[in-house]
Design a protein that fits this description.
The protein is of the alpha+beta class. It has one domain: Deoxyribonuclease I, Chain A. Helices cover 23% and strands 25% of the residues. The strands form five sheets. Strands 7-8-9-12-17-14-13 form a seven-stranded mixed β-sheet. Strands 3-6-2-1-19-18 form a six-stranded mixed β-sheet. Helix 1 packs across helix 2. The longest helix is centred in the middle third of the chain and has 19 residues. It starts with a strand and ends with a strand. 38% of the residues are buried.
């Protein structure tokens, strides 16, 4: 068995099916607007070629967002089987009445979901849930999967996120009009993390009044530490930077490893603060949020998305981990040197001829600015009305421009060591 787990997260950039429904029929990804079976399948082929290239033998754990349904996830898997010769990919499911049903259909108005695909030769899925973020309007929920590593029985809790967009709910929204919604998403994600890493209030009330006393065969401190060190991988498109308030102040994801402390140090530091001197360890415990480590800071100034409103690269796609996964406390350890933004084959500069770009010191408004060569190449297709063979049914019926490109995001990758 392998000693490493190769992980990819990617915002696939509007991977819709061709069957319109009462919600999406008014949007742009429908057959009467050029999004037909041929175009969809070309996009899937392009996406899987990039996923294949991320690791020599392909990834073992694939988190995605902006995918519409299980059928498309299966098509991704089928293409990866052809490219990689692997037959071990499986869609993570939702626990319904004690049984895992593959794929989780979220409530988003546009119909796009988060999804997790894993290797069943490396993992067994133990549990899965979708966590709805409670806005007045339906939005992408957070998908949770609990996995067991077959090689060493280590557990890995995965949260796949796609937080609300900066675009807002209409074309006239200011950049930060939707900031509040990402605070709410961060708080919700943080509550899920807390539920995994901390005992709830009702259980803590039953613990002895000293951390040194025995409770169910272990000292209280040992039990608190054991749960505190559970492996969590939070990944997704957060639509915010690692330094934004939603990530740092609400999710408590930090670039400082020293803030991911053991409980005995947390209790000692709390007691040194005058206002906490009379508090019990239980009060301090319940008030302490789970602090996470953000793996992405060393990648600046590079980004995973070129954001048009600010004309700059942004690092919206991130891997964020718990103390256990950072320190290798429970059988798995993140290889921080492996964190990467995979740009190979995806940039405008690699996909378009030199004639499409301005030449240095020779600016031409009809051409693409030279600095845009580093941008991800989004998937483009002819959005005029088309038939099933991608031929325009307007005008003289000349063949439409061939679909090309990938996504407006680069995928991010990492490696987790199995200890």
């Amino acid at each position: 068995m392998k000693d490493t787990i190769h992980v990819v997260f990617w915002n696939l950039g509007n991977l819709f099916d061709i069957q319109p429904n009462e919600i999406s029929s008014n949007l742009e990804f429908t057959p009467n607007k050029g999004w037909n079976e041929k175009v969809r399948d070309i996009k899937i082929e392009n996406l899987t070629n990039i996923i294949k290239s991320t690791f020599d033998t392909g990834p073992d754990l694939i988190g995605v967002c902006e995918i519409e349904n299980a059928f498309l996830a299966e098509k991704l898997i089928d293409e990866l089987k052809k490219l990689l010769g692997r037959d071990d990919y499986q869609i993570a499911g939702t626990n319904i009445d004690g049984k895992l049903k593959p794929y989780h259909k979220g409530p988003d108005l546009r119909g796009i979901d988060t999804c997790l695909i894993y290797s069943n030769k490396i993992f067994e899925q133990l549990d899965g849930h979708g966590y709805m973020i409670n806005f007045r309007f339906p939005t992408r929920d957070i998908f949770y999967a609990k996995l067991r590593v077959l090689k060493n029985n280590a557990k890995l809790n995965v949260l796949v996120n796609h937080w609300p967009s900066r675009r807002g709910r209409d074309d006239y929204s200011e950049l930060m009009d939707t900031e509040y919604s990402r605070y709410m998403a961060a708080e919700h994600c943080g509550r899920i993390v807390d539920s995994i890493l901390k005992y709830p209030k009702m259980e803590i009330e039953k613990f002895p009044n000293s951390v040194d006393l025995i409770h169910e065969g272990k000292t209280v401190l040992e039990k608190l530490e054991e749960r505190w060190n559970v492996n969590i991988l939070v990944m997704g498109d957060f639509n915010d930077e690692p330094f934004d308030k939603s990530i740092m102040k609400y999710l408590y994801a930090t670039p400082d490893k020293n803030l991911l402390r053991k409980w005995n140090r947390i209790f000692r530091l709390a007691k040194e603060d005058f206002k906490n001197r009379d508090k019990t360890y239980k009060q301090i415990y319940l008030e302490q949020p789970s602090v996470l480590f953000n793996c992405m800071w060393n990648l600046y100034p590079n980004g995973s998305l070129y954001f048009r409103k600010t004309n700059s690269f942004n690092l919206f796609d991130q891997f964020i981990i718990s103390r256990g996964l950072l320190c290798g406390k429970q059988g798995l350890k993140m290889n921080l040197n492996s964190i990467n933004i995979n740009t190979q084959g995806m940039t405008l500069g690699e996909n378009l001829s030199e004639s499409k770009f301005e030449q240095e010191n020779n600016y031409d408004e009809r051409l693409i600015p030279l600095e845009f060569k580093r941008r991800p190449m989004s998937f483009e297709f002819d959005r005029t009305k088309n038939d099933n063979n991608n031929n325009s049914i307007y005008g003289n019926g000349n063949k439409s421009r061939l679909p090309t490109g990938y996504s407006d995001h680069f995928p991010i990758t990492c490696t987790i060591d199995i200890l």
